[in-house]
């Protein structure tokens, strides 16, 4: 069979499975998830063996040890993956929730009820744990899932999906509800992006270039996730100690994640007092500052920033920095260079906080708090499939309800329209 | 200037206007809408004059009188358009609504708040009243709007937009928040479909071919609306009188709209009793039935149905009809041929109703009620921008809240992540 036929077979099987899975209530879905968790632990030797092949191939290909560590699975890590699946089973089921409802003046009973989306495609990189995490979240929310991971993890992903399917086969959830997109070529990813009518939504999880290419090429609706050029704006009325602790936390506590800060903006009126201390604190935290001219006046170690620096999602111990003349200039800077993820203001002024919150157009706005809190776990969602930076359907951390649509149901007694 | 430059100028102006409009509270938006309504009435002579030019051109082009009637504006119709704008002003403002909120365990105050989408593009056909209706709904929900109507109504639309802009100029809502896409060529519509980054969402309003071409060509996220191949399924346990009245209402009360029924499915066990009466009632209502072999056995006037008939959105006094052997077969038929708009079951069986509601995958499912109730007005929304048949963001009738996104706001006291 050709790669296209292979893909269509898998996608149609997922679609059929979705129609069986969608109306299932919570109990059989939770049982299925626990069966998956048990199977992953019981068959961890198979997983470790398949993973060793991926690791060997990566090492032969000269992949860095840091990347290899992200790829590697051992029994401890597999137990953690299984534990995460059990946690998803514990979460409330979003399906069936009545979102709105009323009795209309004519007596029709109207309800808007959460239903699964149908078939969700996930395109992702690196870590094979995403294979299981994403599948668990999709199943729990009543969706079938088509997984397209990195070719570097293809052996691991193949075994993980086979184990999940085997476990599901003994449950009410159809085994075909979890599928790995066959093939490792660029073409197989394209199939998934063009499967309008078979796939209801595509969620890319990975770096900016992966996400951009999916957005450009996909005819299936996409939920953009995760690119974060987050700003910390230190207002004229900021408390200096608060600003310093938020800045260092947002930048350096975990620089490799999308909710880490990438740009510091400082109001001109406080720059003289704040910047010398901030630059020292950043230096002590190992951070390289890429500053505009007005920032460079306050520190010898500041590298000259180019315009690219202000667009950058470093994901490293680097930060761009600029001095602005007003809160509105800070907002304009964020609108121009930001990615619409999370932007923070540090201020004691109620008026400044209100204005910043009202005019910054991002998924999350933090007032006197680190940008690092934009996270499904921190928000209390229990699990997160990604952080949406688009405005349609879902914006910000996406939990289980964001993996659903709704259906209107109205019930009458022979009602006709006059 | 080239057409591309013309378009970009207009789109950028709309985007700038959106940043001013988004944080405005309800009062200035309502004042602006009332100013628009007043101006439309006061300047109706200008509108009638521009409209006469469109009508003359249409007549010279040999357009049917029915189409010309849809195009025509007179003072009475302009007053109705203005009244609709005043009604939108009376509706609650969705912007600022707190959708969810809590205090997190660490004391952070978390709020998810409705915010405008930004810039909404509307591509539509025929009636010039859509120009004003769509603009009013977008402004009320804090969005700027780029309007791309039919070239047949270009003179009318140009004057309507100019009058709205003139009225807005004296209010807090920027005049540039309402814009007509310049030019009448196919290219000008394409500009709008490719304006990713400038336009946040595109809503096509019109027939299936318009909607499909927008879905295919657009890189801007699209909300599909309005194609309705709605089904009435008469279950084995149906009350015959109820089934007849729902069928005739759904098909014949207003056949030109998307929530009218286009296909009748009848359970085999009730076909012998129901179909002879149904075919007579449909004939009396002037409806032509396109039936499968088992339907044709019950009536001499039934035309043989092709597979296309079961896909068709007739929007006329025609209906496709088939006999099915089970409720599940009816659902499979709806999944295969339907458009995911509205499907109705007529049954006395609670079990059948539950199964139909659970397994039909459409924006709305009606139980013992006509499909004609799927409508923003009937649902109590007060206004409707269209009926979404897609699953992401909005599904079913779209009112003002469906023209918004959300923003997460969290407020702390120097909170950092440990």
From TrEMBL, chains A, B:
Protein's pathway: Amino-acid biosynthesis; L-proline biosynthesis; L-glutamate 5-semialdehyde from L-glutamate: step 2/2
Catalytic EC class: oxidoreductase
Signal peptide (from-to): none
GO molecular function, one term: glutamate-5-semialdehyde dehydrogenase activity
Catalytic reaction annotation: L-glutamate 5-semialdehyde + phosphate + NADP(+) = L-glutamyl 5-phosphate + NADPH + H(+)
Main localization, broad class: cytoplasm
SUPFAM superfamilies per UniProt: ALDH-like
EC number(s) recorded for this UniProt protein: 1.2.1.41
Record keywords: Amino-acid biosynthesis, Cytoplasm, NADP, Oxidoreductase, Proline biosynthesis
Location in or out of the cell: Cytoplasm
Domain Aldehyde dehydrogenase span(s) in chain numbering: 4-288
Entry's family note: Belongs to the gamma-glutamyl phosphate reductase family.
Function noted in UniProt: Catalyzes the NADPH-dependent reduction of L-glutamate 5-phosphate into L-glutamate 5-semialdehyde and phosphate. The product spontaneously undergoes cyclization to form 1-pyrroline-5-carboxylate.
Full protein name: Gamma-glutamyl phosphate reductase
Species assigned in the record: Microtetraspora glauca
Gene (name only): proA
